Amino acid sequence: MALPARRIRNDRGSTEVAIAAPLLLLLLMTVAQIAVWAHGHQVAETIATHGLAATRAADASERSGQAQAEQAAEQLSGKLLTDLAVTTQRSTTTAQIRVEARVPSLVPGTSWPVTHELSAPVERIPEAGAGP
After folding, report:
1. Where does the source fall among the domains of life (predicted)?
2. Is residue 131, in this structure, part of any structural domain at all?
3. Residue 14, H or E segment
4. Which domain covers residue 63, as residue numbers?
5. Looking at the 3D structure of the chain, how many domains does it have?
């Protein structure tokens, strides 16, 4: 009785999968990381907008803008933004706010900072009887 012929197996496909699978996974993680970073940037922008509105109000101060930004950060950021730092400045003509934070890293070995800075003129209420 004759023995069945052995088939020679070609392992080229497994090598391609071994190389392509980690690269595809890295690509998917990078896309997800960019989405997390973009959302974190949007949250930082919203925090800065709320803080700037409070800082530039006619009877406001740097402290009121800082408090408003911190309140917005508590409500919006959750665990998304870490190392959150809010800086407000106000002069007689200009109000400024800067929000700096980091978002969680999904891709090992990377750091994803988020920074948003806004400035606007300070509101002034004209005195009664003053012309335009």
Report:
1. Bacteria
2. no
3. helix 12-55
4. 27-121
5. 1
Amino acid at 76: L
| Matching residue, tokens 């509105």 | 53
pLDDT in tens, 26-78: 899 989 999 999 999 999 999 999 999 999 998 888 999 999 999 999 998 88
Tokens encoding 126 = 């004209």
Tokens for 123, please give them.
């509101």
Residues forming beta bridges with residue 96, ordered by sequence position: 89, 119
For the whole model, what pTM was predicted? 0.78
Token pair, residue 82, equals: 């870490």
- What residues pair up with 114 in beta bridges, in sequence order? 101
Nearest partner of 48 among 102, 116, 94, judged by Cα = 116
Q: Is residue 6 assigned to a domain? A: no
Nearest to 104 by CA among 86, 122, 84: 84
> What whole-number distance in Å separates Cα of residue 91 and Cα of residue 54?
14
Sheet containing 82-90, strands listed edge to edge, beginning at the edge strand earlier in sequence? 82-90, 94-103, 112-121
